[in-house]
Amino acid sequence: MRDCHREIAAWLTAAGAAVTVDAAGNLRGLYPASQRGAARLILGSHLDTVPNAGAYDGVLGVLIAVALLESLRGQSLPFAVEVVGFSEEEGVRFGTPFIGSRALVGRVDDQLLSLQDAAGASLRSAIENFGLSPAELTSAELHHDTLAYLEFHIEQGPVLESLNYPLAAVEAIAGQTRMEFVFLGRANHAGTTPMHLRRDSLAAAAEWIVAVEHTAQKDPDLVATVGRIDAKPGATNVIAGEVCVTLDVRHKSDDVRQRTTDALVENALHIADRRGLSLVSRVLLDQCAVAMDSYLLTEIDQAIRMTGSHPHRVVSGAGHDAMILAEKVPAGMIFLRTPGGISHDPAESVDVADVAKAIECGLCLLDQLAHSSRLQERMSRA
Ligand code: HGY
Ligand code: MN
Ligand code: MN
């Protein structure tokens, strides 16, 4: 992250922005307005990613924001532009996502700071080891003069490619539930324990994982994923006594997502009970679906039209920092086509021409907002 900060901070500085790192490790570059003390527009995305990832999820949105500042070539706007590179959005290390953007909306509390990574290091100690102070987290919060938040991001799915559109406006972001389940059975000898006397936690988890897939296959708008399984003691000749699995459930309807999650918990309890095991589950994230700002949507549609593309609208199955920022300020997102619909994998890619269109769209958007009476009115109130 330090290397990433160094590279991007150099580009932001060269583009005329004043660069800082806030107490949550977010990189922040403030490009001044034509008048001192003017309100600000935030352009951002996340700098962290997942294991064995592609090169574009998150960071491309930050670099498009840098490219927009570079394209201004020192020209100032009626509002300041703050570029934010969020430190942690994926939730890989501490199991709970959106830590960087939560700092901007004042939601990094002691419970979150006490979360531990696989090595037992707390979020609090990770912040301190990076040379930052959790006591200063309040200074990372959004300034009262923030007008809106805009995020460019790859779609990470197949829709835009199937329609042959380079860009799309995001109208909403699906809600997501992330959970951890531990099936507790009885470790025993693989060679001497008859099948009818086993309390095999790995077999129980496997039965449940198939049920998770079958449940999600019944609704085209529902996805449910078991992404990680840890079996103990993890030896070929030992029946697993304890298995921990993760669950990720997403749907644009919070009601469907909640009912699905409840049913999958019920199913896990039933399987464990029938096999003589016990089950412990805990919720790591219960994030509701979030609609993007309707006014920004119309401006994004118009900016996409200005690039000669069709202003298509999509619902995002992936979570984004925009859904956190939307708690406090109007938020909008622009998606770029993802060739092959592949993401969270080294095969993730973008077409350079689509990135050029995204930058062109961003410049149109900045120009539209600079002349927007709606935004002027917000600026006068900020
Ligand atoms: O998993 C997601 O929703 C995104 O990649 N953060
Ligand atoms: Mn991601
Ligand atoms: Mn992302």
Radius of gyration: 23 Å
Q: Which percent range describes the beta-strand content? A: 15-25%
Number of helices: 12
Low-confidence stretches: none
Instruction: Calculate the terminal CA-CA distance, rounded to whole Å.
Output: 33 Å
Structural class: alpha+beta
Arithmetic mean of pLDDT:
97
CATH class of the largest domain: Alpha Beta
CATH topology of the largest domain: Aminopeptidase
Which percent bin holds the helix content? 25-40%
Outline the biggest β-sheet. Answer: 9 strands, mixed
Q: How are the elements arranged and paired?
A:
Blueprint: H1 2-14, E1 18-21, E2 27-31, E3 40-46, H2 59-72, E4 80-86, H3 99-104, H4 110-113, H5 123-129, E5 146-154, H6 159-163, E6 167-173, E7 175-184, E8 188-189, H7 201-216, E9 223-225, E10 229-232, E11 238-239, E12 242-251, H8 254-274, E13 278-287, E14 290-291, H9 294-306, E15 313-316, H10 322-325, E16 331-336, H11 352-370, H12 373-381
Parallel strand pairs: 3-4, 3-5, 5-16, 6-15
Antiparallel strand pairs: 1-2, 2-4, 6-14, 6-16, 7-12, 7-13, 8-11, 9-12, 10-12
Helix pairs in contact: 1-2, 2-11, 7-8, 9-11
Bound molecules: (2S)-amino(hydroxy)ethanoic acid and manganese (II) ion (MN) (2 copies).
Residues 46, 57-58, 89, 153, 318, 320 line the site of one manganese (II) ion (MN).
